[in-house]
Amino acid sequence: MTELQIVNGVKNGDRKAMREMYDLLAGTAMATAVRYLGKCDDCRDVLQDCFLKAFTRIEDFSYRGAGSLRAWMTRIVANESINRLKQQSHITFLDTDDVELPDDEPPDIVHVPPEEITRMIASLPTGYRIVFNQFVFEHKSHKEIAQSLGIKENSSASQLLRAKRLLAKMIQQYQQNHDD
Fold this sequence. Notes:
Structural class: mainly alpha
Number of helices: 8
Number of strands: 0
Distance between the termini: 45 Å
Radius of gyration: 18 Å
Mean pLDDT: 87
Order of helices and strands: HHHHHHHH
Shape: globular
Largest sheet: none
Helix content: 55-70%
């Protein structure tokens, strides 16, 4: 089935189309939830809530070409994950600047498996992780991020910088441990 066929099927209540949508998007949705939440226990709950939300709100979705359904679902998962963190009061924005990059060059990630990068992102402190995900994967501006999280724009920018520094350090450590 194409994305458009899946969308139309779900809009008509077709359970096969719902299954196709789940099979098509579950991996991406889970990866998004892990990047935001960092813990798989919460991810499964969020994933279930998001698919229920997507199935019940499919009428609000307007197909805009290949990939638009995936983008819509990713936004649902990101928003639901942030809401879950807010409800649990697990969003902490760190002001420490104890993470230093050894040099100005970003590390080469060619030989780092994608699942390892995802694990590293998931292990970032919550505030770093949310801002990093919103900026890098959701393509939101610091103004948009600040508004959605109730922080200042410069706080968003500093959280992103610190997240990048910490990720660079993790990548370098991974490479040192796997260069043998």
